[in-house]
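Before relying on records like the one below, remember that each one covers exactly one chain. Contacts with other chains, cofactors or solvent are not represented anywhere in the record.
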Amino acid sequence: MDLGIAGKWALVCGASKGLGLGCAQALVREGVNVVLVARGDEVLQAAAARLRADTQAVNLGVNPGVTVLCVAADITTVAGRAQVFAQRAEFDIVITNAGGPPAGDFRDWDREVWLRAVDANMLTPIELIKATVDGMAARGFGRIVNITSSAVKAPIDILGLSNGARSGLTGFVAGLARSPLAASGVTLNNLLPGSFDTDRLKSNYTSIAEKTGQALEAVYAARRHNIPAKRLGQPAEFGAICAFLCSQQAGYINGQNVLADGGAYPGTF
């Protein structure tokens, strides 16, 4: 299927690895020009080189000249966002993505810890939407996809920081998606990952293994057992879902929370 977005420009945050990279790769394969943002320059440059090589390996038809730019910056800061928009001011697609805040007991979190979580996982996406959405509306096309978490639908007790901050973003997006922007060709959706095979997941499972004395593979096996698909998700398939939400065909999908978790969520709605 031709998604109809070749030649568009996308901003992809947290794009040096994991789910962000998976989204960037899927967009590049559709002929989308991308600006990748992440904090670590060396890993980011390697990701950009990989995507540029990908554009040569994949037949992109009428749009073989895909541009891949990168900005090594902390998107959660005013200065970091200024760096990004100095590289390019207008985007047709924005993928917001930030690593989740640490797990723990809410009794241990002071105000500053909460503010960092809210800043990264709620206010930063809102700032990126604010900076780009009116330009999208003026041009008659825009796609914003916020990578949040399955914990928005099924909160996890030790992820209180994430539960709170991401739920705040979810409520904001629900309102904005139903504003007059909806009639201007702009959609805003959230993409909720469950357990995907990423470095962050490995880090979380390693921590569990160390605390419980289990072997790391035993922790993985227990998690896979609780997923109806009996496996972890792959960043490439997550990216494919993201690319579809950014497509011309997805113009009637708006204000939704799209859950990708292999069937782990037990609810009906």
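The beta strands are 9-13, 33-38, 68-72, 93-96, 142-147, 186-193, 257-260.
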